[in-house]
Amino acid sequence: MIHKNTLQGDYVQTGTRIYTIADLSQVWLKMDAYESDLTWIHYGQQVEFTTISYPGQVFHGRISFIDPFLNELTRTVKVWVNVANPNGKLKPDMFINAVVRAKVNANGEFLDQQLAGKWISPMHPEIIKDQPGTCDICGMPLVKAESLGYVDADKNIEPPLIIPGTAPLITGTRAVVYVKIPDAEKPTFEGREIILGARLKDHYIVKSGLEEGDQVVVKGNFKIDGALQIQAKPSMMSPADQKPSDAPEPSEAMPASPVSPEAAPQILPSTSIPDFLSAYKSIWTALYSDDLPKARQGSKAWVDAAKKHSLKNIEMIGHKVMHASDIEIARQAFGQMSGLLIAAIEKHGSQSGVLYAAHCPMAFDNKGARWLQWDQKILNPYFGDAMLECGAITKTFAAK
After folding, report:
1. Where are the beta strands (DSSP E) in 122-257?
2. Residue 330 phi, psi (nearest 5)
3. How confident is the model at residue 1 (pLDDT cuts 50, 70, 90)?
């Protein structure tokens, strides 16, 4: 009995509910799984969970149903788990914390030693047998575990290839890692485009593009990529097979595509800073206003300044904004412009009045980025109207 509706002495009529009775020796556990976690959740998986009522005690169950619909507000899916409750410790409406441990092979197929070669009930996943038969609870015919997405743990057990989450540089459509070239005279790296699978907390599964034993850069990859971009070489934002139609040819003096980690960004000559700042200011204004066409227009002045001072590598950055297919690509190039100008002003000083260096820690997937402003009111070019005032002034450059 889970609810008593009447007391002794009450008058009742035919059909009056007196008691509510339920068998709590088996209970359903309902979980909310985030959309990003669905790749790791499968029918029949074992679930471990705890409750605040019984600290230190771990309960177990198996997933019996995954809701086919997603909650649009919470971006979660309901997952039901069948749990044995012979001692009646688990009560309706208890809060629990659950953990699902997924083991997959290189092809993303689920591995479970307990289900390898077994027969399982399609309605009650806790019913597992060595031979075909029927479910002890509902009488439905058992099915092979392989038909539910599992594979024999003795076959096809090649583990997936994983890399640290800090290794790939991700643009949204591409992922690039920098791989150490073996047997080089000094540490040298080359960019390689890869295809990523699901994220495993602090790691990614790699579907193709790398092999076991390859050494990838996990810290300092942005420095290498930035050097390649300044040199107009294939990089995160510029694949080897893409180049603006009217972009200038790379200089013959540029180094080969693999670069050493010692490669440093070019410092602008002091005489060029006013010309670049003028173009930079118009691009900055356009980006914090979410106006890509005006940013493209402003980039022409950057290209002209680079031509005036014979800086072909710097000219390429202006072409990236000029030919950007969306505003995020323009913002990536603007980040390079900011790095160049801030480095130059730190070395030569400001020749255009007082300037302020601002920093946004959330730019580029929380990696952070700086930019220059002409006053102290934050106007964020990396987010525009979405987070216009995100950031803080980190340095002031007095007029030289």
Report:
1. 128-129, 143-144, 150-151, 161-164, 169-170, 175-180, 189-200, 203-208
2. -60, -40
3. low
CB 28 within 8 A of CB 80: yes
Strands (E), 165-272: 169-170, 175-180, 189-200, 203-208
- Return the pLDDT at 97: 92
Residues 6+ apart with CB under 8 A from 388: 288, 378, 379, 380
Using pLDDT thresholds of 50, 70 and 90, give the confidence band for residue 115. Answer: confident
- Reported residue count of the chain is 400
Q: How far apart are CA 189 and CA 235, in angstroms?
A: 12
Q: Quote the strand ranges of the chain, DSSP E.
A: 3-4, 19-20, 26-34, 46-51, 59-66, 76-84, 96-100, 110-111, 119-120, 128-129, 143-144, 150-151, 161-164, 169-170, 175-180, 189-200, 203-208, 355-360, 369-373, 392-397
Judged against a pLDDT cut of 60, whether residue 248 lies above it is answered with no
Structure tokens at 263: 């490669």
What's the pTM value of the predicted model, to 2 decimals?
Answer: 0.51
| pLDDT value of position 365 | 81
- Hey, what amino acid is at 375? D
Q: How far, rounded to the nearest angstrom, does the alpha carbon of residue 60 sit from its chain's CA centroid?
A: 31
Question: Is 263 a residue whose pLDDT tops 80?
Answer: no
C-beta neighbour count of 263 within 10 angstroms: 15
